[in-house]
Amino acid sequence: MKRQGSLVCVGTGMQLAGQITILAKSYIESADVVFTLVPEAYTERWLEKLNGDVRSLQGYYAKAGEIKNRRDSYAQMVDAILIEVKNGKDVVCAFYGHPGVFACVSHLAIEQAKEEGYSAQMLPGVSAEACLWADLGIDPGTGGHQSFEASQFMFYQHTPDPCAHLLLWQIGIAGEHTLTQFSTSSEKLQVLVEQLQQWYPAEHQVVLYEAASLPTQSPRIERINLADLPEAALSGITTLLIPPSKPLSHNDEILSKLGISATDLG
Ligand SMILES: C[S@@+](CC[C@H](N)C(=O)[O-])C[C@H]1O[C@@H](n2cnc3c(N)ncnc32)[C@H](O)[C@@H]1O
């Protein structure tokens, strides 16, 4: 039997009030406690209107002038959430975007709550990536796509497919390994550009993308040459899209096994 106390992690979408699911909103309205991790004040205020006990997790990040590892911040956030679950409360955590996409606190909290015998689940939300395909008019199914966290892409042996779209998340902290800084440098971005030049020419057009967080705003869609990335203005909400640099090429071996001729594919 499950213990009393539960956890539901929901996404608020990228844009104020309009991208949350009906189900997520109803969980927020009926929760005993709502923890929030949203990047701007409007969404925070809106959530406060939905529930009388809304607590922001932002305070666990480093304060101005403080050096604090983000892993410590995340662990403290998880502890704060679990305390209320263990107090027998029905807890909802509202994260911007999709609660489990490039977001570890939701996964850690759900895992821990389940291990300790509590009911815990995640509801999906509209992520930055979902907005990107919509705003740019791209169907990622056309040639496929890959997504990486930018620093992880740099630190490990990932191989992008230049026939597919490539998304690099957290480009604004690319190459930052200490987990204490919230920005990158043109030197680190230059290393990334040189790495990417194994697959993409220097003049390949890439897109700096920022979904709008308010209905009155427009998304940022800025096309630049890959070589100009080190001087580009990047923030904590910038995602880098690298479109394909090569057309799809047929897999003749598989086509022949299937008895299909390349011309049959149109
Ligand atoms: C910690 S992840 C959170 C992602 C979020 N959970 C989601 O579902 O989109 C932060 C990264 O998401 C992307 N991101 C966040 N806000 C964005 C926005 N408004 N537009 C484009 N990308 C965004 C950026 O790559 C940013 O560095």
Let me know the CATH homologous superfamily of the largest domain.
Answer: Tetrapyrrole methylase, N-terminal domain
The overall strand count is 10
Task: Give the CA-based shape.
Answer: globular
Percentage of β-strand residues = 15-25%
Overall pLDDT: 97
Which CATH class of the largest domain? Alpha Beta
Write the CATH architecture name of the largest domain.
3-Layer(aba) Sandwich
Low-pLDDT ranges: none
- Tell me the CATH topology of the largest domain: Cobalt-precorrin-4 Transmethylase, domain 1
Our Rg estimate from Cα atoms comes to 21 Å
Kindly, what is the distance between the CA atoms of the first and last residues, rounded to a whole number of angstroms? Answer: 57 Å
Order of helices and strands: EHEHEHEHEHEHEHEEEH
Q: How many helical elements?
A: 8
Supply the number of structural domains. Answer: 2
Instruction: Characterize the quaternary organization of these chains.
Output: single chain
Largest sheet: 5 strands, parallel
What's the arrangement of strands in the largest beta sheet?
Answer: 3-2-4-1-5
Structural class assignment: alpha/beta
Q: In percent, how helical is the residue content?
A: 25-40%
Bound molecules: S-adenosylmethionine
